Structure formats: C-alpha cells, structure tokens
Amino acid sequence: MTNAPPPPSTAAQSARTILTRLHEVMAARTNAQGKLNQVVGIIGECLDSEVCSIYLLREGALELYATRGLKQEAVHVTRLGLGEGLVGMIADQIETLNLDEAAAHPDFSYRPETGEELFHSFAGVPIIRRERAVGVLCVQHSDPRRYDDIEIETLQTVAMVLSELISNADLVDTAARTDAAAADQSAQRLNGQKLVDGMGAGVAVFHQPRITIEHTVADDTEAERHRVYAAFDKMREQIDRMASSADFGVGGEHEEVIETYKMFAYDEGWSRRINEAIDSGLTAEAAIERVQQRTRMRMRQIDDPLLRDRMHDLEDLSNRLIRIVSGQMGTAAQMGGLRQDSILIARNLGPAELLEYDRRRLKGVVLEEGSLTAHVIIVARAMGVPVMGRVSDVRASIREGDLLLLDSAAGTVHVRPTQAVQDAFDAKLEVSQKRRANLAALRDLPAVTKDGVPIELMINAGLREDIAALDLTGARGIGLFRTEFQFLVSATLPSRDRQQRLYRDVLDAAGDRPVIFRTVDIGGDKALPYMNVGDSALEENPAMGWRALRLALEREGLLKVQARALMEAAAGRTLNVMFPMVSEPWEYEAARALFVAQRAWLASHNKKLPVAIRYGAMLEVPGLLETLDLMLPHLDFLSVGTNDLTQFLFAADRAHPRLAERYDWLSPTVMRYLARVVRTVSGSKVALGVCGEMGGRPLEAMALLGVGIERLSITPAGVGPVKAMIRSLDLGALRADMPAILAQPSSNPRGQYQDWAQQHQVDLGD
After folding, report:
1. pLDDT at position 483
2. Cβ contacts of 351 within 8 Å, gap of 6 or more
3. Which residues form the GAF domain (predicted)?
C-alpha cells in the first residue's frame, strides 16, 4: 500500500459528509428511535431522495422502524418476512438492489399503508452484523431513475455505521442469532457438496472466530490510514514467507496458486479501495470490512465459478488483514495449532490459511461455502485432505471439540455420531481405501471397453499446475484449457509475452499429448475490472449476453494478441484452438480468418510457427445444430459444452438454487439432442467430443458413449471412475439398446440407465 494516498474521491467526500453528521447523531443523548428518525432525514436530504427508510429484523421479520417520505403510521406496523418483497429479498440474499422501476421487479410487494405507490425508483442495501443482515436501508424517488454508484456506495457505508448504532442500542434481533441448536447433544447428520473426495474423522476445530467491528467512525483519518499501511506490510511479509516455505509435496506444480494469492496481496486496486473507504471517515477495520462486504455482494452476483473463487481468495486476504489491524491473530493454526486429529470448520478458506495447518493432524475440512474450482480446493487436493462445502449453519449444529465423521463422497458429515454410525463409517473407510488403490492401478491401462472400443479420455484445465494431473491420471491429453483464467486473476490485461509463457509452459509440460486451447471466454458475468465492455455489466442475463466469441470478435485486438501468443508458444508443434459460444457459422469463420491472418503476419516477420493448426468450436448454443452441416467442412473438431448447453436447452440458469438440480442431464431432451449431434457429425472428418461436467460422472459418461460419443474431456478426479466404467462396459450391447431407451424413455430416465448398468454389471463406483 503506497504511502501517498490519492485525494479523496467524490464518493468518499459525500460519505464523509454524511458520516460526520451521523457521528453527531450517535454521540447525542437521544434514544435509539430518535436517532434513527434523524438518520433517515440526513440520508434523504444528502442524497436528495424523497424517501429514506430503515427496516430492522425483529422477531424474524423486517419491521419498518423509521422513515422519511412514507406514511408515519406505517412505522412499526409494516412487516416483511425474509425473502418477501424487495426489502425481504435484500436481507435474505444480502444483496444490493438498484431499480428505476421498483414495481416492475418480480419480487415487488405492495404495502398500501406506506403510500409507496407514489414512488418509482428504489435502491436498498443490507445492514450487516456478524455476517448476517439485521436490517435494510433503502431510498425511493418519484421519478424513475437508477441511483448512481456514488450514492449506492454512500448507502453501503452508512449501513455499516447503522449496524454499530443498532447493536449499541440493543436493537439487533436476538432471535436471528439464537444458537439453541448448538446446545443439542444428540447425533446429527449434515449434508453438503463434495469438493475433494475422501473420508476423515476428527474433532471439530473452528478456523477463526469472527472479528466484530465495534467502532466504525474514525476520529483521525490519517492515523487510521497508517494503521492500514502497517497491516499491509505485515500481511505481505507473512505471504512472502509462506510462499518461500510452502511445500505442496508434488514438485511445486501448485506454485501459481500462491503466486496469484501474492498478486492480490500486492494489488494496488484493492488497497486504493480501502484508502477511499478511510477517506469517507471509516476506521481501518471498518474500511477493510466495507470493501469486503462489497466483495461478498459481487461474489453473489457472479455466475462464473473461476472469477467467484478468485474473489474468495481476496476475501481470505481481507480476513487476514482485518485480524492484523485489530491485533487479533486468532485462527486455530495461529493459536496453538491442531492438538489431535481434527476436522476444520470454516465459512471459507484461502490456500495460504489451509497451509498453516499441520497436515498430519488435519483429516478434513467442512466449509459453509466453497466450490470445486477454488484455489483452496486445488491445494487441499494436493495435500490429500477431503473437503465438503455448502454446509449451511454449521455453527448452529457443531460445537468446538465435537467428534465428526466426514464422508465427502457421500456429501455428509456426522456430528456426535452413535457407535453404530462409527462402526459403519470405519467399514466404509476400509472399502474406500481399497477402491482408491484399485483406481490408481488403472492409471496406465487403456480406456477400452470390454468389446474393444477405445475411448479418448482427456482432462479439463485452467491452471499451469493442472498439467500434473495428466501423469497422475494417465489421461490422453487436455481437451479443454480455459485461457480466460489468466485474464480473470490478473490486475491488468495480460501481455502477449505473459500469455505466451503460460501457453508454452503448458505445452512443454504436456509433451507429446494434445492440448486444446479455448480462446478467452470473458464478458457478461465474467467482467474484468480493467476492461470496459460498455453496458454488459448491466445485463439481466449475462450468460446469454455480450461474452466469449461475441466480445472477442468485437475486440479484435484482444483476440489478435492471443492468436499470436498461442502460435508462437506452439512453434514447431501442432496447435489446437477452439472457439467458445459459437452461435452461427459466420462467427466461427470470422474467428478462424483472424487466426489465419495472424499466422500470415507472423510468417512475414520470420517468426517460428506451429507445424499445423487444428481449429474447433464449442457447441453450447442449441441453435448451432441447425447449421452445423455448413460448418463441418471447415472444422477439425467439435466439443459439446454440456454445462451451458443444458441451461440453454431448458432456459434454466444453472446457478439458480431452485433450478440447479431440476433438469437432469439424462433426460430425453438432452440425450435426444446429443444423438442428433452425433448423427449430424457422423461421416465427416470432424472429431466429436464432450467437455463438461456431464462426462465426468460414470453413469452420464456411459449414456454419452451409448449415443456415439467417444471422446470425453473431464475433471481429473473423474478420470479413474470413468475409466473403470469404460473397462467394464459392453458398448455394443448398450448401443443396441439405446434406440429403444431414447424412443420410449421412462418417467425416471436416470433410473432407467442405472437399471441397465446393474443388469450388465457396469462398474459405476457406487
């Protein structure tokens, strides 16, 4: 963090003006209700907003506690449940809303006693205490308009101060923080998502107590700034020390994980945002927390898992920084480490924090959040530590020291288990260990069906260290290398030299095994802070918006640089390049023509070139199938991206919690569509494969082989189980039965495939 802060921004000055007035209100001897009445008046006046209202969580519902502009008789009368109406949605999802026409929002709920029908625009932010929403601060205006970013940032800053005021006045709803379940002594089973496969037993150890910020308004801005400077210096020393001493145990192939982590620690953009929050009048702790809250809200709005997980790394550093600046270095690792076999409990973890623990005693990790592509998962997998994520309200069910039995493959953790559960767990653990040994023995065996059909098994990758999985799994090559990862974790647009180094390292590590590079897929929900993409950040449906090849064709310079980097990196070798999100043949032709032109440019400048370039496309947009026959003469290979394809086929956002499990990959809709793709490609020179999560599951992979797919690019963890399935499968028998299965699907298609597999003794690893 530089020692010469820029002058305060307009947003900081605006927030500081309001905070100065709020500080006077907080210091006054008025009662809590009187203070809140003054607060809504100040905010409404400073933001020139006709309505300003504060809702507080009381007895499980959001009660209108103070307002300027709505009818006063509605105060303490109007109540909204969590998730009910716009206010309820903000509190339930801990999100910010900014609408020019509130009534048009599907969650709008009209309350006639408030008189809010006079107002059109609406903006609201959650009031957060101990990571939970304890209220909502919102403003409204009679004219339809979106509130400026400066106004939203001011509201978010004020909400932090309100959190302190509400807590000091004992207005925080105690019902919202009840831990009655924690007093339950009975055995429980919690469910979650498998992130790293494995089983482990140990006592519960909480990673870190939450640091509650008690003082938000600064008395001396410069003193607070210097406290943050000192904390940044100490944090960077810790990260540098960890980077130099970290032993991942696999030849350092995870070096980029820590390097990316270091990049965030030294990111000037992050430190600048904290500086701006201090300029607004916040204490050092509150400024870090203010930026951290913004990060959390952005994470909830991001569909792309890679970008979301990079922001988890930033939150990990925020936690570390706030502990340093507050003088509370209170993680379990820092307070004496693990004294016995332990299961670590955390809301989330960064890779550096995980590395602080003694891996000899760390038997597993349970996260309230977490996802498959997070940095910490990469490190945990290298350490051999099982991890389960998406386990809600763990603090309400688990106490420090409870015995836990973690079975991430089953997505369960048993809390205070009975003896019978412990005996069953031990028996399953023994079977699991034998299963892992058997899968490891398959590494060097070919992926060939019982009737002699070879299947090409490849892996998906996005990090330099992912290449190590080729040797660990025995995969044929990399069927999808996501080049956008380098863009998503970088603070600036990666230069051609940086891109070239990455691509060359990947090719060198792969050796003679093929690597298919997908050109950069950014835009839409994968917004880059250093790249202005116009209105794409405001898209209501970014997954189907201005992204991937659409954006790259408009930003030709971006694609030209990547083309040159790929070609120079692949000099003397075959380059496989694939274009994402192709909707019509002309898009593919335009991208291919750009690469051809760049190859000619490099040749004219006497640059070394690939011996051959193979061009491919991803089939993710369902409509492309209707013109696929026109593209086939110009394609070398085609990869079906089942993740996007499925959500587009069903018009169902795969990130939506209510829809994530609703539509099955094995449904007739998906399987018949894929069968049409196979028939269309059949007879051409085009190599057809699937790269997506669907192919990494043994049952789904079996169905894909049944319709004619013979190349799968999957997660490294899926290679062993899928290879075991392949080697136990009579593919001829399956393909003979597939027409009948597709023609007359049962009401339970998944069960239909499971029954077939059981009847034919296919190894699904169950």
Report:
1. 84
2. 257, 258, 261, 313, 316, 375, 376, 378, 379
3. 31-176
